[in-house]
Amino acid sequence: MFFEYKFTAPGCTWPRLQERLTSLTSFTAVSLLPGMDLNSDAAGPKSDQISRLPSSLTRLSLNFPRAESCWAISNYAGAAFPTEIPTLMSLYVPMSEILPNLLTLELAGAESVLDDWVPTLPRTLTSLTLKNNNRLTDVCVPNLPPGMTILNLPHNDRLTGLGLKRLPLSKLTLSGKALAPNLLISGLSMCLEDLELPHNTHMNNDDIAKLPRSIARLSLPANSTIKGDAFSLLSPGLTSLTTAADINDADILRLPKHMITLALHRCSKLSNEAIGYLPRTLTLFSAWNAANITDEAIPLLPKSLKYLYLDAPNLTDECAPFLPSTLLELKIQTVPLTDNFFAAIRLPNLVRLELSGARAVSDHSISLLPPNLRYLHLPSAEELTQACMHDIPRTLEIFVAWSSQGFTWIPPTLKYFYSADLTLLPGVFSAPVKS
Question: What CA–CA distance (Å, rounded) separates 402 from 265?
Fold first, then answer.
């Protein structure tokens, strides 16, 4: 059994329903309110409320600002929590006693969590995600639950990797911004399958050669130090790669042959011919700064693609008929696409469409959208009018049209709508805003 609670409007309070769900295994709390008052009751539960969560929980996800504060014992009378308190462990709710069966914990806030919090974690925990934390250090590593297989700290650049080798980690995400590569690599588990260092800039080709051969997914989106010839040093079992290496056509030939996802952040040297060299097994392909890619490259894309994200300014409307019909998501940056593009696409399964440069788009194009579309992002479209609302797909839930205005009626099927003068959010319908 699972339960999901969403903060959808000011004044929402933390539910007491969880007290009666004694067999609950998964609990998720989500804030959908931008700019929510962190001091309001809607900002999340207090420690006495958290302590009443059912002990049957195996998964807990708290996605709202300052989510970590719910673990602080709220009746502490003294210094401001937590930065002025020298000893913190006694000030945290004993999570291991309250949730003895917890396997997965995800906190969207957690900016203030320090090393002293880690010993309170249930020893059963196998997955920990702290989305915004940058305070944990190597001091906490010996106190991490011994069976942990997933550690996700994308903004933490204080952990060096020392001691992590004792954990059976299969997925590790750290900022990587301030890490010494040799120190990190020496601490990696030989069974690691997924390594993500979103802010690392100084790993080089020699470091790539030392990575565990077990790695199947590698993400270094900010590292331009690595050269394309490092691709030949990757494990042949690699299935996913995100890289900022400035690659050329020959580098594409060095990629492992059975890749599933490939995200290339620097493609200025890639030609149309290189697209034909891509692994035919790809389901996701992303190429940014691809100034030399033109319409002629589109028919060469793998026919198995489901997700395609392109920053290729020399594409035109003419590419539309050649897009893989298997696509579920399509994003094309900066290209001034027109009604002709919408008239030519044949993407029956598409659920997400983002065309940031499509300015000259008329209401008629909306009537040509794929029938199962759920997300439409046309931030530059200036000519859309109220009339287009009668033709949007019934499945559409999110519609972004920042540059259009004059909307007075929104279909009830839409959950979010953004335009130049009107915003619709769950539970909130704003009057037109005058600029």
Answer: 26
**Residues of the chain by 3-state class (helix, strand, coil), percent to 5:** 20, 20, 60
Residue 151 per-residue DSSP state: E
Tell me the domain boundaries of the chain. 347-435
User: What type of residue sits at position 405?
Assistant: Q
Q: How far apart are CA 330 and CA 91, in angstroms?
A: 48
pLDDT tens digits for range 116-166: 889 999 999 999 999 887 788 999 999 999 999 999 999 888 888 888 888
CA 153 from centre of chain: 13
Two tokens, residue 291: 């100034």
The closest of 203, 225, 296, 306 to 260, measured between CA atoms, is 306
CA distances from 134 to 92, 126, 156, 163, 337 (A): 19, 20, 4, 18, 41
Its pTM stands at 0.84
List of E strands, 221-273: 240-243, 261-264
68-79: b or e for each residue (b if 16 or more CB lie within 10 Å)? bbbbbeeeeeee
Task: Calculate the CA 50 to chain-centre distance.
Answer: 27
Four-point Cα dihedral 270, 271, 275, 276, nearest 10: -130
| Cβ-contact 159, 134 below 8 angstroms | no
DSSP SS3 for 189 = coil
